[in-house]
Amino acid sequence: MKNKLIVIAGPTAIGKTSKAIQLAQSLNCEIISADSRQFYKELKIGVAAPSSEELNTVEHHFIGHLSIADYYNVSRYEQDVLQFLKSYFELHQHAILVGGSGLYIDAVCKGIDELPDPDEDLRKQLKDTFIKEGLVPLKLQLEELDPEYYQIVDLNNPNRILRAIEVCISTGQTYTSLRQNSAKSSDFKIVKIGLDRPREELFQIIEARVDKMIELGLVEEVKSLDQFKELNALNTVGYKEIFNYLDGEWSLDKAIEKIKTHTRRYAKRQLTWFRKDEDIKWFHPDDMDEIIEHFILES
Predict the structure, then answer these.
(1) What does the alpha-carbon distance between residue 188 and residue 129 come to, in Å, rounded to a whole number?
(2) Could you tell me what percent of the chain has a pLDDT over 70?
(3) Which residues form the domain of 174?
(4) Burial tier of 170 (Cβ tally within 10 Å: 0-12, 13-18, 19+)
């Protein structure tokens, strides 16, 4: 029988970690993180990294294995995970890949498309626009060049936006069309499980989670990283809003409300991404019996 990689995907705060641990315990297997925000050892509270107790319950991989100053990308992640699985599956039948970073999950399951190398002159031109005018004109340009990618990209991530525009202009094609990964054959079977809740239920959990992050010391965590705030790893929801508070631009209440708003929007974009994958079978996180039954049927 082929080894099996069980993918557990879904939006932020949906309950992926707890379900992955529960399933891993029942299958006696280990967990691979596909949450790009949890790769960095300095980020804990703001990225909802698994607790020490959770990490000790089941062996986790690709969590806290990098520093925020390290260069890392999705292509390296694909190579690292596939190399890990090659040796892992010599001793184990199952592994669980869990996270909300759709691009990273696709990299492992489908492979990364070959995209053109950066055009340095064009990149400099786009960066100059960003520095002088901010993200708004670049967002408008991306929406015109590739409206499909515009609907799913993190619109607060300048690097993603700049790269997509760069590829569109360089090739004369949409970034989306060049990212249409074709599944690569693998030595293991992939079973994809998606977790979702009614929208209002999810939003309530998101808001409660943000409040809990503040209670656990998110402000202090961000303050300790102030000297690194220009790094791309910190250009993410939960950190950039608190930096605005620490810089005196916003009140703490406003920063917290912005985190909740941006997290809700991020969850919507994650769902838009995952809904396009017809191989994902969707469940409410509480339906563990149905999830296990589905895995058995797919095995």
Answers:
(1) 45
(2) 95
(3) 120-178
(4) middle
294 and 190 in one domain? yes
- 17: domain CATH number? 3.40.50.300
Encode 256-266: b = buried (16+ Cβ within 10 Å), e = exposed.
bebbbebbbeb
**Mutual angle of helices 199-216 and 252-275, in 10-degree steps:** 140
Q: pLDDT band at residue 184, thresholds of 50, 70 and 90?
A: low
- The pLDDT of residue 237 is above 80: yes
pLDDT, one tens digit per residue, over 238-247 is: 999 999 999 9
* pTM attached to this predicted model: 0.81
